[in-house]
Amino acid sequence: VSVLVKCHFLYDAAKHIIKIDGKAGLYKGLGPRLCAGAIGTVVHSTVLQKCQEKGTPQVLGGQQKAAESSLQHVVNETTKEMVARSCATIITHPFHVITLRCMVQFIGRETKYSGLFDSIVTVYREEGVLGFFA
């Protein structure tokens, strides 16, 4: 039942957005979101590849062993994945900030953030680098 209520709410919200901004209003923030996805994928795979190539330091057991224990292997692979995901998250966070600001400005009926590059300039001019991590 709750799924039907959520679907009905989303349908009503979409109708309201279309009524106010047209169908294009449904896609506010899509550009920065697509950039975040693409850049995040590239950063994640690049960092993960570099970690694999360089052989990140062993977390358990200070010395390299010919045959790692399975726990050690899991911890090391998980650490590499966490590093890659963290780097991707940090790099793409500014795009998520812009995405949200583009979508939320509908509520305040603002037109401050109109495109990706204009939004980057606006955030930087008004809040500096820290604005991208707000």
From TrEMBL:
Highest taxon in the source lineage: Eukaryota
Pfam families, per database record: Mito_carr (PF00153)
Keyword Transport: yes
Intervals holding Solcar repeats: 72-134
Membrane topology: Multi-pass membrane protein
Subcellular location: Mitochondrion outer membrane
Keywords (A to Z) from UniProt: Membrane, Mitochondrion, Mitochondrion outer membrane, Repeat, Transmembrane, Transmembrane helix, Transport
Transmembrane segments: none
Family: Belongs to the mitochondrial carrier (TC 2.A.29) family.
Matches recorded under PANTHER family: MITOCHONDRIAL CARRIER HOMOLOG, MITOCHONDRIAL CARRIER HOMOLOG 2
Protein name: Mitochondrial carrier 2
Native source species: Xenoophorus captivus
Gene assigned in the entry: MTCH2
